[in-house]
Design goal:
This is Methylcrotonoyl-CoA carboxylase. By secondary structure, the protein is an alpha+beta fold. The N and C termini lie far apart (51 Å).
Length: 110
C-alpha cells in the first residue's frame, strides 16, 4: 500500500467539510433535473420524471449506481444538470444493467 502524501494539518478537516458540503449541494441540485416550470409541464402532460422512470424500472429495493450526475457541471450557465441524461448501473429482473434515461426537462423543449 502506498502511503498518502496528504498533509492533514489544522485546516484539513474544515476544508474537507466545506468541500463535501459543496459536493452534496451540487448532487442534490443535479438530481432535480430541469427547472421547476419544466418539471411541472412534464408532469402535467402525464409523463414520469426521469428519476421516477428509472426507479420504476429497477428491481424494488435494489441499489442504483449513478455514473455521471455532475456531467456538464459549470457549463451552460449551470442549466444542464447531468448533461440532461441519467446514467447508471442497476438491477432489472435480477440482472445488472446499464441504464440511460434522457431528461427532457433539461434543454428538452418542455
Amino acid at each position: 500500500m502506498t502511503p498518502s502524501g496528504i498533509t492533514q494539518g489544522s485546516g484539513y478537516r474544515s476544508d474537507h467539510t466545506v468541500l463535501v458540503d459543496e459536493l452534496k449541494k451540487k448532487l442534490a441540485q443535479a438530481a432535480l433535473g430541469g427547472n421547476e416550470r419544466s418539471r411541472e409541464r412534464h408532469v402535467s402532460r402525464g409523463k414520469l420524471l426521469p428519476r421516477d422512470r428509472v426507479d420504476s424500472l429497477l428491481d424494488q429495493g435494489s441499489p442504483f449506481l449513478e455514473l455521471s450526475p455532475l456531467a456538464a457541471n459549470g457549463l451552460y450557465d449551470d442549466e444542464c444538470p447531468g448533461a440532461g441524461v441519467i446514467t447508471g448501473i442497476g438491477r432489472v429482473s435480477g440482472r445488472e444493467c446499464v441504464i440511460v434515461a434522457n431528461d427532457a426537462t433539461v434543454k428538452g423543449g418542455t
